[in-house]
């Protein structure tokens, strides 16, 4: 069968190889790759590493280097490098426990206690030497403040911290990282603290008061693990709940809502009882 076409290969580029668009298609060289791994090891997030690296080119007026992806990677390339660094140093976001188990001996060597509950509702307890010094203080047996932050990192985990009020300000007693904000997951996290540091509340097995937000799951878990402790809502979350209630009334004018909110806040701080 005769050939139906002919292919000729030219080793010369038929387009501009020094344009900004072309330079952005280059691969990251190994030296720059190691630079970004070092940025991440120093605690920089991907966006912080991007700004820091770009500023080095701007300070030198090196605009050609700024456009060159082999020297100044694109955002997608940097986020990919961060994923590679994270998997190597911190473990997979899907199953971080393998890497965590490797690091436990190192944490113990510097006096930090790491304990974990390993199932689908996983939880990790972190207690540093500073936190341990706070456990026997008398302030740790009085009011303990609890705050949770959800959707952290790529794993969308929750970080819960316990703090006591001292003369120098708030000091942490423990940090717990857990998979979700359901009641059982909070119980798993709180049980780790109770089992490993049963007398962490100023020598007591529970504080006098827990101050938290209005999360029913969190409050239910506190009641399950430390039923003897009294629970209170902080002023901020009480006011927040009042504003949500006012905002839910569609027939009320905005000015009326603001007026009622100011009156409610005045009642909160009023200390005179008739």
Task: Provide an overview of this structure.
It holds the Pfam family MULE. The chain has 274 residues and is of the alpha/beta class. It is built from eleven helices and seven strands. A seven-stranded mixed β-sheet has the order 1-2-5-4-3-6-7, with helices on both faces. Helix 2 (30-41) crosses helix 5 (75-89) and helix 8 (183-196) runs parallel beside helix 9. The protein is elongated. The mean pLDDT is 87.
Query: What is the CA-atom radius of gyration, in angstroms?
Result: 27 Å
pLDDT under 50 segments (min length 5)?
Answer: none
Oligomer state of the chains in this structure: single chain
The helix/strand class is alpha/beta
Biggest β-sheet strands, sense, barrel: 7 strands, mixed
Number of helices: 11
The proportion of residues in beta strands is: 15-25%
Indicate the overall shape: elongated
User: Can you write the helix and strand succession as a string?
Assistant: HHHHHHEEHEEEHEHEHH
| Lateral arrangement of strands in the main beta sheet | 1-2-5-4-3-6-7
The residue fraction in helices comes out at: 40-55%
Count of individual beta strands: 7
The span between the termini is 108 Å
> Mean pLDDT score, rounded?
87
List its traits.
18% strand, elongated, alpha/beta, 7-stranded mixed sheet, MULE_transposase_dom, 274 residues, single chain
């Amino acid at each position: 069968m005769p050939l139906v076409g002919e292919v000729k290969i030219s080793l010369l580029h038929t387009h501009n190889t020094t344009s900004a668009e072309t330079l952005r298609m280059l691969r990251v060289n190994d030296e720059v790759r190691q630079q970004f791994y070092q940025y991440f090891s120093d605690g920089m997030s991907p966006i912080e590493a991007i700004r820091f690296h770009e500023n080095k080119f701007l300070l030198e007026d090196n605009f050609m280097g700024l456009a060159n992806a082999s020297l100044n990677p694109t955002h997608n390339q940097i986020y990919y490098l961060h994923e590679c660094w994270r998997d190597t140093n911190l473990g997979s976001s899907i199953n971080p426990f393998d890497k965590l188990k490797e690091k436990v001996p190192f944490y113990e060597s510097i006096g930090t206690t790491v304990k974990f509950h390993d199932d689908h509702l996983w939880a990790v307890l972190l207690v540093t030497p500073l936190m341990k010094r706070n456990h026997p203080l008398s302030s740790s047996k009085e009011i303990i403040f609890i705050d949770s932050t959800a959707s952290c990192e790529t794993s969308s985990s929750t970080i819960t911290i316990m703090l006591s009020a001292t003369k120098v300000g708030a000091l942490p007693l423990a940090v717990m990282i857990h998979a979700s904000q359901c009641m059982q997951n909070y119980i798993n996290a709180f049980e780790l603290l109770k089992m490993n540091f049963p007398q962490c509340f100023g020598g007591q097995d529970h504080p006098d008061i827990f101050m938290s937000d209005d999360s029913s799951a969190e409050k239910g878990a506190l009641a399950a693990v430390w039923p003897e402790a009294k629970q209170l809502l902080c002023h901020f979350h009480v006011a927040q709940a009042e504003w949500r209630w006012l905002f839910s009334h569609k027939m009320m004018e905005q000015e009326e809502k603001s007026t009622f909110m100011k009156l409610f806040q005045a009642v909160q701080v009023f200390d005179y009882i008739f």
